[in-house]
Amino acid sequence: MGVALPLIIATAFWGIIGAGGPFLVPRGPHRGIAQTMIILTAACCYLFWLLVFLHQLNPLIGPQIDVKTIRWMQEQWGDSNKHAPHY
């Protein structure tokens, strides 16, 4: 339920904004443009939130290097901290 609840809440929130927002626009010559902007804004915000949410479920983390391998690399390549200039 840890993944489903935020997904349901965000979907419902942006669905309400996208479906109900256009009915709140007052009548006028540019009503259709304002309604389109509200729907597109809700869709884009939802998609952005969804992509960030899904990315956090499976983050891309670099390979985990064993401590022995790190020490071997330091022996073979040298310790870069010793020769780095300090400003």
TrEMBL record:
GO terms for MF:
proton-transporting ATPase activity, rotational mechanism
InterPro entries xrefs = ATPase_V0-cplx_e1/e2_su, ATPase_V0-cplx_e1/e2_su_met
Superkingdom as given in the UniProt entry = Eukaryota
Pfam families tied to this protein:
ATP_synt_H
Subcellular localization(s) per the UniProt record: Endomembrane system; Membrane
Which terms in the GO cellular component ontology are assigned?
A: endomembrane system; plasma membrane proton-transporting V-type ATPase complex; proton-transporting V-type ATPase, V0 domain
Its membrane topology is listed as: Multi-pass membrane protein
Q: What parts of the sequence cross the membrane?
A: 6-25, 37-57
The primary location reported for this protein is membrane
Q: Does the keyword Transmembrane apply?
A: yes
Keyword annotations for this protein, in alphabetical order, are: Hydrogen ion transport, Ion transport, Membrane, Transmembrane, Transmembrane helix, Transport
Q: Which proteins does it associate with, and in what oligomeric form?
A: V-ATPase is a heteromultimeric enzyme made up of two complexes: the ATP-hydrolytic V1 complex and the proton translocation V0 complex.
Protein name as annotated: V-type proton ATPase subunit
